[in-house]
Amino acid sequence: MLNDCSYLCSTRTRQASQRCSNVRVVFDPFGMTDANNFSNPSKFNRSIRLIEDELNHTKEDFINHFKETYTNQYPPSWMLTEILPFGVITNVYSNIKNKKIKKRIAQSFGLQVVPFESWLTIITVTRNSCCRHARVWNRVFSIRATMPIRMSRPWITLPTDPLKVYFDMCIIKYFLDIISPNNDMLDKMNRLFATFPEVDKAALGFPSSWKNEPLWQ
After folding, report:
1. Is residue 44 a contact partner of residue 88, using CB atoms and an 8 Å limit?
2. 18, 58, 166, 199: most buried, per Cβ within 10 A?
3. Could you tell me where the beta strands, DSSP code E, fall in the chain?
């Protein structure tokens, strides 16, 4: 089950990063690697080192084609988001200098800037835990998500522990419904629970009537 959860988290967070790259208001195609677009030079340099490390190790054909065809030092942002860890995407967003750009990106997900950045961090932590095969099913996480002032899209209404993995899964589902409205996340969850009926959903933070929540309809 842990491997399935890891795959689920990795797939969903990669799709979220692709959505971020599709917001056309963000700089120019090479803006992700332009220091002028970011507030904190130290944080930018750390992101660049991580980008270069991924570029040096990737075996993706489209990256190799770019290197062989063009003289640019770095590929455009839409290519980079295909190979970068989600944590790097989160750090890049948090360091954007232009507040209007940050606002436009957050608004494309129906959120304000602070909650959006907070939710990206929550996904990053959950994704990293899954990839390391760390225990998540009954874990109490240490980061509490910042909630939006208002929400225009379906969300949860029942009392829910924001430090349990169920809440993190709700955030992933929220983003995924925007990125891929006909996604099969709920179907995959149901199959996992049917395959492993011994799993205590309450320990994960699931309310007893969670399937009746607007988010899961």
Report:
1. no
2. 166
3. none
